[in-house]
Structures are given as structure tokens and as C-alpha cells.
Amino acid sequence: HMQVHPEDVSRVLNCERAHDLMPEIDLFYFSPRKIEESECVCYCVEMFDDLGLVQQWQLKRDTLTRFLLFVKKGYRDAPYHNWYHAFSVFHFSYLVIKNLRLVERGFISSLEALAFMVSCLCHDLDHRGTTNSFQMQSGTELASLYSSEGSVMERHHLAQALCILNTDGCNIFDGLTGEQYGKCLDLIRDLILATDLAHHIRLVQDQEKMASEGFDMNSTQHRQLLLFLLMTCADLSDQTKDWKVSRTTADLVYQEFFSQGDLEKAMGNAPLEMMDREKARIPDLQIQFLSHIVCPVFKILAQLFPEADCLLQSTVKNRHCWEQASAFFARKWESGHSSLDILR
Ligand SMILES: Cc1nc2ccc(C(=O)N[C@]34C[C@H]5C[C@H](C[C@H](C5)C3)C4)cc2n2c(-c3ccccc3Cl)nnc12
Ligand SMILES: [Mg+2]
Ligand SMILES: [Zn+2]
User: Fold this and answer.
1) What is the pLDDT of residue 317?
2) Ligand 1 in contact with 235 (CB < 6 A)?
3) Which atom of ligand 1 is nearest to the CA of 133?
4) 282 close to ligand 1 (CB < 6 Angstrom)
5) Looking at ligand 1, which residue's alpha carbon is closest to its atom 20?
6) What's the CA gap between 327 and 325, in Å, rounded?
7) Predicted complex ipTM exceeds 0.85
8) With the C-alpha atoms ordered 222, 224, 226, 232, is the resulting torsion angle positive or negative?
9) How many angstroms separate the Cα of 58 from the Cα of each of 61, 64, 67, 260?
10) How far apart, in whole angstroms, are the C-alpha atoms of residue 30 and residue 304?
11) Could you read off the pLDDT of 106-139 as tens digits, one per residue?
């Protein structure tokens, strides 16, 4: 099973570099993928501390460090669904809590902020770079465990998170009362399951209705829809960064999709077009993904929080870049070239 050695913990505890968070780390356009992999865990501790959560919930630094090292080890080296994805999703949760002042303004409680950040870190634990439908179609062991409830991968990510919390010296919530602990785990369960995009699609109309009606602080439904919206925004946050980050991320996602497509062909199943490296037109697929899923989500966020408008603007700008790429590609496709290399 996964091992974290005491010297790993002490090295992180003594890391000086991160004790003063680097300038600009709290700005929306900052890309966390710039941070050295060996310093990520230190920065996670500092971000929890910067939001007052270490103090508020009496998080012990050595327990938090050990927990974070286990989470980091709990990710595989898939092209996209690896530790850096989890770290960047976590960083976005830090950005929205800090920049939209979600706790001070009463949109979420401090416990919900803690659960939101921990859920972001854990939300894709032990991902294999394949989708829920692949699990079901190829009858993986995860499908046999969870397919009756749906959201197969997300249930596995949750199980892995709970397993780490139950590992000796890793229960970061041991300073919470029994009631707070129960509420926190219920939140983590709901938030990790909410990262299944098929689940999001069922909720998005209610989220749009909430944004047009205006957020009701006393509505349990609004408060839950907001937390789910924030999870989806965090999961898609690479698309709110500059074009280089947005395109690089698409590259990594399609490496996973095309590997899955190759597997499906080898198993005699026809992959979705977006998984088929022979058929997929990445610019057109990204225009659809940004138009149907990403921009609508950040439009809702911007309606609720005008300070988040810059996030919507950058997703719209990235979609425009794909439109230009698509036009450029179309000319190339006519003349037979089909790889993304021409975008470099
Ligand atoms: C750049 C980029 N492109 C992406 C293109 C497509 C899809 C995608 O799952 N599409 C859908 C399309 C319909 C309706 C639902 C369920 C399925 C059928 C599959 C969604 C995701 C993409 N994605 C993600 C991402 C976010 C959350 C979970 C998994 C992933 Cl991979 N993160 N970045 C990207
Ligand atoms: Mg996921
Ligand atoms: Zn994810």
C-alpha cells in the first residue's frame, strides 16, 4: 500500500520557501502548474493557513502534511488526471474563497470552505485516465463495485479519500466535534460525487435559475447548488487561464481520451468520436466543450459574483482561439495534415 516516510513529513514541515506565499498566487490568472512539484504540499498548507482554516479548525501541521503527502501519492501519473490536476483544482478553490470572500460574505460557512478545499484535493484520487462509461462497458472491478449507483469513478475517488482520512496520523478533522465531523464528511461525499459532469448537466438549469432569480442566503437548495457549481468551476479552471494553459490541458485530456479509444478498439468496441484519434477534430470538440459546458458555468458564476467576470472572459477568449485554430485547421485538413503540431 502507499507509504509516506517520516523524513518526507519533516522535509515539508521545514520547507522555508513557501512560508510566505509567492506574490500573485492569489490572483485569478495565476497558473498553479508553475509551482515546483516538490513545493506543492508546502503551498497547500500555506493556502489553508492563509484562509484561517488551520486556526479555525485546529488543523495540526504534521497531520495536515502527512494527509497531503498521502493524497499526492494517491494520484497516478495519467497524462491529465494526476496530482497536478488535483493541486490546480485545489488552488482554484483557494482563489474563489479568497477573492470572492465567500465565507466573510456568508455564501458558504467555514466548515463548507474546509470541505470544499479537501474535496478538490481528493476529487480524482487514483484516477486511471478512463471514463465512467469505459468502466461499465469493459466491466472493470470499479464498475462491479459501484455501477449500480452510477458515478463509478467518483465513488472510487471518495472511497480513496475516506481511506486516507482513516490512515494513522492523517485524520485532519480530529479537532472537529462529532457533529462537525459528520457534516464535513457528508459535504465531501456530495462534493466529490458532484464532479461527475453527467451529474452537473442534470443540475445546471437549476443553477441558471438560481443565478437569474438571485441567490437566497437562507435557501438550503441555493447553498447546495452554489457548492456544486464551485466544484465544477474548480474542475474546469484550467480553461480560465491563458491560451497556452488552456490548449496544453486539452492536449493532455485528449491523450487520455485517445488512449481510451485505442483500448476500446482493441476490445472490439467503437469509441465515441471524441475518443477516436482517427476521427476527433480537437478544435471543433473544444469549441463545443467550451460553448456547452465551460462558458455556461462561468457565466452563472459571473452572474452571482461580478468580480468573477474575468474568469468568464478568459473562457470566451479561449473559445475564440479554438475558433481561429479550427479555421486554420480546416485549411490544413483539406490538404491532408491532421495533427495539433501546427498549433505550436
Ligand atoms: C479540456 C477538456 N475537454 C473535455 C472534453 C469533454 C469532456 C467530457 O467529459 N464530455 C462529456 C460529454 C457528454 C456529457 C458529459 C458526459 C459525457 C457525455 C462526456 C461530459 C471533458 C473535458 N474536460 C475535462 C473534464 C472535466 C470533468 C470530468 C472529466 C473531464 Cl476529462 N477537463 N478538461 C476537459
Ligand atoms: Mg473526476
Ligand atoms: Zn477532475
Assistant:
1) 98
2) yes
3) 17
4) no
5) 197
6) 5
7) yes
8) negative
9) 9, 10, 15, 43
10) 22
11) 999 999 999 999 999 999 999 999 999 999 999 9
